[in-house]
Amino acid sequence: MPESRSRSRPTPALPVLVLALLMLLVGCAQQQTVLEVDEEVVVARQSFSFTEGEKFDLMPKYTVSPGDTLDVLFQIRTWLEKDTFNISVDHTVAVKFIYTPELNEEQLVRPNGMISLPYIGEYYVVGKTPKQVEQELKKAYAGILKDPEIYVQVPEFQSAIKELKRDLHTAPRGLSRLVTVRPDGYVTFPMVGEVMAAGRTIEALNTELNRDYEQLISGLHVDLFLERHSGSLVYVLGAVNEPGAFTIVKPISVAQALALAGSYNDDAQLDSVIVARHHQGKVIATRIDLSRSGALGGRKPMFYLMPDDLVFVPRTRISEAAQIARQVSEALMFRGWHITVESVSIDEL
């Protein structure tokens, strides 16, 4: 009887290798995305692609917003030397005829820029230097007087300045005035009138005001200060405990914004958090994976917010651009607004 031999079945090597490879890959993935205990890493910071280069520790350059209160401080700078002296409406002009003193005139320049002179009637002087007026009058009187010798002087040229000083010193705030930016972005400044202020820097607005005031009254200068700002806000909505608008004094991360909103709910989908920002007349939205952010123990960059940003924490995972636009639209009722979805988000880096 033939000897029976027991045959050992060969071990399937391929499935074992595949399983080992999968475990290795999972382990590497976890090692790359999750921080180990006591491990220290440098977590990157970022925001929307069109805000690259901005500092995350400071607000962007401040621009005036509706609701802001501005302090306008007036200064009278009559001591500054100027290259030319032009006659203005509030000046007193003296015209002296050397050989015919009976024709001499001293008049306050009228609002239409005119003075009245013998034989020639009304004569326009505003914007001209005394020397220019002398030369023009000599030509005008050449056919009337023989070899006319005429001198023009401005004995009084601070009438408006003196009147303004009286008004300012008797006002409750002295040399300063408080003005508020209206909801339409305009501000009404003393004497100048309405000026568009919203969206402009204090420096740019101050430069325009000084140009306007100099044209009104020579030597009048203003310094513009931000007395009180309407507040820099971020909005947190969705699956959070205390949704609403929150005041910030510097850029903050999305995780910090959620902390202001009382943290997220148990059903919050942290891998589909939406951030929306106004940019060039549009609302740009992007999706970030907060669950892998450095703020929650991951290695991905921390996404930073700027004033007026919206954070929406959904209760269901969002993956399509249309879903992002729809959820943002429903969150803030942006019906009719154009919403563009950023193509780059943290979970894709």
UniProtKB/TrEMBL annotation:
A Pfam family the protein falls into: Poly_export
GO molecular function: polysaccharide transmembrane transporter activity
Alphabetic keyword roster: Signal
Annotated Polysaccharide export protein N-terminal domain residues: 62-154, 176-223
Superkingdom in the source lineage: Bacteria
This protein's record includes keyword Signal: yes
Domain Soluble ligand binding: 234-281
Protein name, UniProt field: Polysaccharide export outer membrane protein
